[in-house]
Amino acid sequence: MFIRLKGDICMNMILNFFLYFIMYSFLGWLMETIYASIIQRKFINRGFLIGPLTPIYGFGAILILLSSKWVENVFEDYYISSIMTVVISTLLVTILEFFAGFILEKVFNIKCWDYSNNSFNFKGYICLKFSLLWGILAFLLTQVVHPRIASIIYSIPTSVKGYMSVLSLFYLIVDAYRSITGALDLRNTTINYSDLPIGEYRNMIIKYKRILQALPHLLILNEGVLNRYVRSIFNGRINKIKVQIKNRFQT
Question: Whole-number mean pLDDT of the chain?
Fold first, then answer.
């Protein structure tokens, strides 16, 4: 009986954290989408995935929540605990952002963001400005947002949370597969541009217009050479670009 009860508690905790991940992935997508849509004055579906989820926010939120629990157990004073939570969360999420950017570049040969023009950046993956922003978000998450989200999740029956988690996981896997396939196809298209007719090349790039709009700093890396923004195709300069790139490789 005790073992079964302990197992139920463990399963409930896992379901809670998975739903936290989904919820904060959605809230992160919503925040970035609203910001980008206001700036560009049109709807922009931000994020690597096709659907309304930005997993780096979900993973970041989980890191913040776990670190805040650890800090609370170490520091009894509320103010010291709050400060240390922000500091440790900032470091952890900054590390997460660095490895996410690094892996995306190595696996897909693309850079989804580039902080090279920001002060105090490291290889363009992270910079002081956005690390501090992560700290602010960590404070708001632990002090304002999460208590309300947690109360909602806790009120849901475990069986319902199980169904929600299964459906969410299935959706996430399908979306991730489609998004990764699209990113690889886009990468292969840009790498093999010289073998494609101009019309077909243009159509392939436009096919992935969502990715280019969602990631405004997307850069395609071709054999170690930084080509240029593929989005230039939308400005009617495709012929000129192809000639320039082809001549560059021939010289």
Answer: 79
